[in-house]
Structures are given as C-alpha cells and as structure tokens.
Design brief:
- It contains five helices and 36 strands.
- 8% of the residues lie in helices and 35% in strands.
- Among the domains are: 181 residues, Immunoglobulin-like; 124 residues, Cupredoxins -  blue copper proteins (Immunoglobulin-like).
- The protein is mostly beta strands.
- Strand 13 and strand 14 form a beta hairpin.
Length: 550
C-alpha cells in the first residue's frame, strides 16, 4: 500500500478528530515502551506555554467548509477540485497580533476523505497544528473540528491541509496577522497567492503522485543515473544561493528552461502524463521540479484572464506574496518597477531593493512598490518549467500585455534569502548552541525514495525516530542536501534564523549538494513536523518529527 492508503487506514481507526481521540492513542507524556519520553501535543506544558502568549482577548470565529467545487480559473477554464467554501484561494482570514482564531473545519469532502488544516508559519499550540496523526486525528467526512489558537506574531501566513497530497488541490487561503504597531508606511495592500495547478484539468494530485512515485523506476533510461532528471548542478552552485546575493542577471537570461515533452514519454509501457523531464534552473542548482502543470495561477486566475489590482500612480503598495504551489518555485517581478523586500516568512528584514524574487513552495515575501502610471504585468515565472502565471496592476490607461510577457526585471537583480539580514528587533539573541542536529536530505528521483537521514517517514509510527530537543535549548539544524534536487525545508511551530544574523524564516531553499545551517530557540513544546514542502517529496517520505523530551 502507498502512504496515502496506509494513512487512511490508520486514521479511520482513530475516530472523529479531537484531542480526546488523540489522547486515546497516546499517553499524556508521549512515552511508550523502548522509546524516549516525549511531550505530547495535548500535555499540560503545551497549555502552560500557550497561556504566556500575548492575548488581546478578542476572538474571531470563522467556518471553513472543505468540499468539492467547480472552480472558475478564468478564460472559460473550469476545474473540478476541492476548495474552502467554493473558491480558491479561499477567503482571506485577517486578524491582529494577539487575537484568538476559532476556525471550525467542516469536512464535506467526497469518497470518505479525511482532512485537516495546518496553519503554515504560525507558532501556535501543538495540538492545533493540524498534522494527523502526530498532533490530532484527521477530521472524518461529515465531521467538524474547531481549531482555536492565539496568533501572536504578525506576518504573512497561509493555511492548507496536511493529509496526503491535498495541498496540491484548491484547499488553501491566506492568513494575515496585522501588527497593531505597524512600522511600515504604505497606502494599500495586495495579497498575491501563487499556485501550480493540475487538479480537475489533466488529472488529480493523487494520480500525479502515483505516476511520479512509480514511473521513474519503470522507465528504461538506457543505464542513465536517474538521481536527477536533468544535468547535475555545477560546482559553483551555492547553498541556499548564498553566493548569489545581489547578482546582476541583466546580462542574459538565467532561465535554463529547456523542457522535453513529458506527455509523450513512456517507459515500461507506462505513459508519462504528469512527469516533467528536463526542467532545469541555474537558480535552483539543476533540476527544477518533477511535475508538468497545465496552468500556473496568480490569485486563482490563469494568465489569459488575470486578476487585476487597480491603484493610482504614486501610491505605495505592500504586496504579500505567498507560494502555495506543490512543486514549483516562482521567480516574481512587477514589470516597470523595483521591489523593496521588507519581510520574509512573516518576519521583518533590513530593507533591500531588488528587481525580482525567487519564492520556493511555502515561502512568503512582503515587498513595497511605488506604482507608476499605466498597466503592468506581475509575472510569476515557473522556474525552469517554461511557463508562467500573471496578474495585472492597472493605474491608468493602456492595453494589457500578452499572457506570455517576460518583463526585463525577471533577469535583473535577485537577492537570495541568505543575503538578507533580520531586522534588529527579531534577530535571535547571542547564545551558546546547546545541541546540533545533522539533517541529511536523502533519496533520488530514480527510486523516489525521498527521506531524512536515510529514512522515509512512517505515518504508521510517527514517533519512531524523533529528532529530540529540550525546552529552552538553542538548537542548530544543519540541512545537508545529499541529493541532486533542491528542497524547501519547512519546520512547524517555530521560526529559525539563517546563520547567525540572517532572516527569521520557517521555510528555506536548500540547493543540491549544499548545506544550510539554521538556529532556533526550542520555546514551543510539543511534536512538530520538519519536511520538504514539495508536496510529493514530503508525501514520499522526506519528513521527520522534531519532538520535545518530557
């Protein structure tokens, strides 16, 4: 059985979601025979930590109905998918730092499908993190579950399921936590959500996963090493793009986007309908991704019928950019404009002016732009995939550019996350490192055996090989990429700092054959997932559990 089916069997036995069901399948301390004693997500220490969070006393109640939906992607393109309350992205949730969110999930999905909601980037209480079976039992069809937590850190976040590859359907939406003492000066905001789209067009994410998981092993590649589906990265590639900071790419395109027609490829009698071959990007150190997507969306719209932001010349606008995709990094630029980076993954950085951004799956960037007069394309280039998404900024008269427009800014100055510096008020205090964990990213495209430290994560036994930390420790994680593909590594329930002075993030790009070191304070007890935010790599096994010792 594949991991989706094994998980369904396990969760069916857990019953209706809730802390009671969770408690029934784990002891209060998380201790089991022959394994270390762990802090359970619903333990007293989790509740005690939550009481210390800044709390305004205000509660915002929302209902999120997950159900089948026929989605209008624009230009007459309809897609049968799953969505929250019939739209994608789902309706934005916006609250103020310190407010409590009470979000009732109603599971109306078909075919006995369980689901959950993970609040990506929020350092919340562990039993509300939405990761079956580690932190809760999955929400069964026809059942409801209320997520209730304090959102005490302002920033740009989003939410999505954490069951199977449901992330690659339409079940996602922005979550914006406003700063009541906002230091930035701007006139308006525009939330920009990027997504790679396959569901209900050429197939389903489950069909994609089945093909790419088994397809490579069944293909006759004439003795080729299929650890990577493209040429190996050059030795000059840098970990987390650390050596590329401020690189002026105006001398020529860095796309490297030659692609072969995967739809007609076959091996062992198996048609390669979804697998993308030859997707290559110098920015990503080689292989850019696995999946051939028919569309790339900005705010749920195809480029032929784009979302439009209407503004006025001279106004300063804050763009909150979210990559909700499953397998695609986007290079983002606004034609005719420069962008000033102010935040990444919700936390402020020292301001930097750039032409374009590289945004991996799960990453978020906030930027400021001063609008010019006219009509301008906001382009999300699917890095290495010879495709793009587009929205428009309209401040005056003029005709819309073609959907395939390629603004010069895409080949201009791009700063890597590692070249950013955390703003002084969020930089981690100097402190001795108490513990170092080597997190080897392992596996290959050939066997599709993605894992961490040589092991595939087992949802049947999530606490089998935990990465142990202790409350109050300063912890260093060394992401050592042993593979020939890039991986956006996401840690739940915490932010970490890149190096000793880099930005505070929860998701970071680790390039092939490179190492990225991050630091975190173990200040949020519980059990937390650490995984690649490529939906298919994570589901194949590139996950681990970071667990607090009791």
């Amino acid at each position: 059985m594949n991991s989706i089916n094994r998980r369904s069997v396990l969760l069916a036995g857990l019953g209706v979601a809730g802390t009671g069901a969770l408690a029934a399948c784990s002891s209060g301390s998380g201790k089991s025979s022959g394994s270390p004693s762990l802090v359970s997500p619903n333990s007293k220490v989790v509740a005690a930590t939550d009481k210390k969070r800044k709390n305004t006393g205000r509660v915002q109640n929302v209902t999120l109905t997950a159900a089948s939906a026929m989605l209008d992607l624009g230009g007459g393109m309809m897609a049968k998918s799953w969505a929250f309350s019939g739209r994608t992205p789902g309706k934005e949730i916006r609250l103020s730092a310190g407010d409590t969110l009470a979000a009732e999930l109603s599971n109306q999905l078909p075919d006995k499908t369980t689901t959950s909601i993970h609040w990506h980037g929020i350092a919340l209480r562990a039993d509300m993190d939405g990761v079956p079976p580690a932190t809760q039992a999955a929400v069964r069809p026809g059942s409801n579950f209320t997520y209730r937590f304090i959102a005490d850190a302002p920033g740009t976040y989003f939410f999505h399921p954490h069951v199977g590859v449901q992330l690659d359907r339409g079940l996602y939406a922005p979550l914006i936590v406003e700063d009541p003492k906002e230091p930035l000066s701007y006139d308006d905001e525009w939330v920009v959500v990027l997504d790679d789209w396959v569901d209900g067009v050429t197939g389903t994410p489950d069909e994609v996963f089945a093909e790419i998981k088994h397809g490579m092993g069944g293909m006759d590649m004439g003795g080729m090493d299929m650890g990577n589906s493209s040429a190996s990265p050059s030795s000059s590639s840098s970990g987390d793009m650390g050596d590329m900071g401020g690189m002026d790419m105006s001398g020529g395109s860095m796309d490297g986007m030659s692609t072969s027609p995967s739809a007609s490829s076959s091996g062992g009698g198996m048609s390669m309908k979804f697998m993308l071959m030859g997707a290559e990007s110098k920015l990503l150190g080689g292989d850019a991704g696995d999946v051939k997507y028919p569309y790339h969306l900005v705010n749920g719209r195809v480029p032929a019928d784009p979302d439009v932001y209407a503004g006025k010349p001279g106004k300063r606008v804050r763009l909150r950019i979210i990559n909700a995709g499953g397998d695609t990094a986007y290079r983002v630029a606004l034609g005719g404009h420069k962008m000033t980076i102010t935040h990444t993954d919700g936390f402020p950085v020292q301001h930097q002016k750039v032409d374009a951004l590289l945004v991996g799956m799960g990453e978020r960037y906030d930027v400021l732009v001063t609008l010019a007069d006219g009509v301008f394309p906001l382009v999300a280039l699917a890095e290495g995939k010879n495709a793009s998404g587009m929205a428009l900024v309209r401040t005056g008269s003029g005709s819309a550019p073609k959907p395939t427009v390629h603004p010069a800014e895409l080949n201009g100055v791009i700063l890597a996350a590692s070249q950013l510096k955390a703003a002084g008020d969020v930089r981690l205090a100097s402190k001795k490192t108490d513990q170092v964990h080597r997190i080897e990213l392992t596996g290959s495209m050939g066997k599709y055996n993605w894992g961490i430290n040589g092991k595939r994560f087992d949802m049947n036994d999530p606490t089998a090989n935990p990465i142990l930390v202790e409350h109050g420790q300063r912890v260093r994680l060394d992401f050592v990429n042993k593979t020939t593909m890039w991986h956006p590594m996401h840690l739940h329930g915490h932010t970490y700092q890149l190096g000793t002075g880099g930005p505070r993030k929860d998701t970071t790009i680790v390039l092939p054959r490179k190492t990225v070191s991050v630091y975190l304070d173990a200040d949020n007890p519980g059990q937390w997932m650490l995984h690649c935010h490529n939906a298919y790599h994570g589901e194949a096994g590139m996950m681990a559990l970071v667990a607090y010792q009791a």
